[in-house]
Amino acid sequence: MRSAKGQRALRPVLCGVRTVWDAVGDGVFFCPCCGGDRNYRRLTGRRRLTVLGVPLVGRGEAEPVVECAACLAHHAPEALDHPTTTRFSAMLREAVHTVTLAVLAAGGTTSRTVLEAAVATVRDAGLDDCTQEQLFTVVEVLAADTGRGSGTDPAAEACGPTLAIELHEVLAPLSPHLAGAGRESVLLQGARIALADGPYCAAERQVLTTVGSALGIPAEETARLLAEAARTPS
């Protein structure tokens, strides 16, 4: 004899509300549930009153969702704001490369020690084919484009509006996706390049202060990190 609970489980559901989903786009995103890059479908939904499983009367629109093709979990559309692993790696490489160029533009490229430190930093970030000659050439082009190197004060010109805007454009989108230690790491990589040939010059310190600001690091914390880096033996 079936129990009352078993009898209730066998009863058909006469009516309910069902969401009918329509795919309106797809792509690749970082799935929080899977912890990696996955294909997704962007879905819009319409709620329907169902009788015996048959959708009949509309009950309004459902909030759009992003469905992971692997685990089938639904996420808010904001999940697409998180960069994929591939995109995040590219953003980090670009950030390190831009900070390196900014520090070299401020401190100059005459020191072989500084160029060696710069190349090692950029290669560690994933640009394996970077050479001293490439960095030297890019910095010289930047200097020519901004009119530096012809009697101008490097401290005053080190981080003019153009370079400051470029640093913010590259670093600001990356900052929300980095933990505090990650933001500090980007700043300190630039600091180690600047310190490769001795203490910071005024222009290097100004550029590194701008880097800290672009990464969302408070000014006093940036100053502390730069001071500690200067006291740490290389």
Automatic annotation (TrEMBL):
It holds the Pfam family TerB. Residues 95-225 form the Co-chaperone DjlA N-terminal domain. InterPro entries: DjlA_N, TerB-like. Signal peptide: none annotated. This is TerB family tellurite resistance protein. It comes from Streptomyces sindenensis.
